[in-house]
Amino acid sequence: MDKKNINNTNKLEKGTYLTFHLEDELYAIEISMVKEIIALMKTTKVPKMAEYIKGVMNLRGIIIPVIDLRLKFQMPEVEPQMHTAIIIIQILNSNIGFIVDRVEEVISIDAEHLSEPPKFNSKIDTEFVKNMAQVDKNVIMILDLEKILDEDDINWIESLNEEA
Predict the structure, then answer these.
(1) Around 29, how many Cα atoms within 13 Å sit in the side-chain half-sphere?
(2) What is the CATH number of the domain that holds 89?
(3) How many distinct structural domains can be found in the chain?
(4) Which segments of the chain have a pLDDT < 70?
(5) In what order do the strands lie in the sheet with 15-22?
(6) Which pLDDT score is estimated for 125?
């Protein structure tokens, strides 16, 4: 093995992650980004927004945009279930809610269980997949939620911050 490959592997560091489900797949985000996890709440729809933006909610006097990760990942929309939750993440100096099917647990993943995400062709956007992890018999996609947002999403979120 050459030194280049060894150095690339060393960049993957142990971390603590919140895991959650969308359909049958397991995903994770760095726990340091998570502000809180709440039960699904009523949102106010914002006209002319992308379908995956469910609207905004008022959480203790703070207006928070809410994004349905299922729809953002082009999965079929389903009726909310008992375990459907909103994970509040702080990115772009804002709190943003992401709807997930079910929150699983907080886990620690050692560097030796992490790997770079696979490279697909240029038509498949996987820039938001930060790493892959092998934990027990599960493969977990570790997401960079900031990279899930497109330019229109970012502009809208920044405009909400200006109005607040």
Answers:
(1) 23
(2) 2.40.50.180
(3) 1
(4) 1-11, 120-125, 161-164
(5) 102-109, 15-22, 25-30, 138-143, 129-135, 114-115
(6) 61
Q: Which two tokens stand for residue 108?
A: 């620690």
Give CA–CA dist 141/138, Å, rounded.
Answer: 10
Contacts of 17 (CB under 8 A, 6+ apart): 28, 29, 30, 31, 106, 107, 108, 109, 133, 140, 142
Q: In the block, which residue shows the tokens 């760095």?
A: 30
Query: Mind listing the pLDDT tens digit for each residue in 34-77?
Result: 999 999 999 999 888 889 999 999 999 999 999 999 999 999 99
Domain that holds residue 7: 3-163
Report the C-alpha gap between 42 and 127 in whole angstroms. Answer: 31
- Whole-number Å distance between alpha carbons of 63 and 159: 12
E-only strand ranges, 43-84: 53-59, 62-68
Distance CA 91, CA 84 (A): 22
The token pair that represents 123 in the structure block: 């038509």
Q: What is the reported pTM?
A: 0.85
